[in-house]
Amino acid sequence: MPQPEVSIWGTILTCVEIGLHIYALQAEKNQGLVLDADYAEEALSEDALKLGHKQGEHIYFDDVKSVVPAYELAKQGAITHPELSDLTEQPEKLAENGKYYAPEYFGAFEPPQDTAWKKLTNHQPLDNGIYFVEHDGQPLLAVHQTIGEQVLSEMAIHQAGGQGVYLLYPLDNCAMPIYELSASHPAVLEQIVNEDSLLHTLCNDHPEYVGMHNLHTEEWGHIHDRPAPKSLFLQLQLDRAAQQVEQPRQNTTDASWQQTPDQATYKQQDLIPTLQARELPEDFFEPSEDLEW
Fold first, then answer.
1. FRET pair for 59, CA 20 to 30 Å: which of 26, 185, 232, 274?
2. Is the pTM of this model over 0.85?
């Protein structure tokens, strides 16, 4: 069957045969893998076929879902293009990326795991592969490395600490990943309660990042400083700040109430005044019957 001459994604820009009946196609509106329909129905699983769109004699898998047929075909050795030999040799790499692009097929990322030197608790999932966690009572943003490779800039990745396959960011150093993840993950965007604080934090803490960002984006997407507090752009940050303010108040009490048990034991004579009979003075004048008014 000949390679496609038209596509569901508009005018074809490039079309390369990467295996028998398998084409890597780029069009004006999208790109992905295109397979001859008869071949695809024989070579692919039912779960994979569900992710494609059949049009005429071909089945189209867009840029996101093409990882699924690529994975199955790589395991079969059906992808023969020399520049794609890594796919055939390491299909498990496709499977790991697939947890980001097609979790309905590959499954979701495992949550952050403990290591011998770091125990993580209180996992709060934000999205597939993105969590808030705690270590020694300190909250952290955890981002799976695969998501980092696909979404985050090198500068954002270099700011992270490591925990297995997760990138970890303390709350006072998570402005870059939060800013970048919010563009592709609505669940992260929902965590931002003060955009002005986020922009101010970026400008204050990461001026080089802001400069590079503004250099490579259109004017409408530039980052500009805003008058706002620093590192108070997440609800979790606000909650932590409120706790830190409240704690000293609880520890500060009136010194008069801070007493030892001995000091708190009052003697009875200190509580009850001594009752004394008041003697009448000698010159006290007492009326008598002989008094005339």
1. 185
2. no
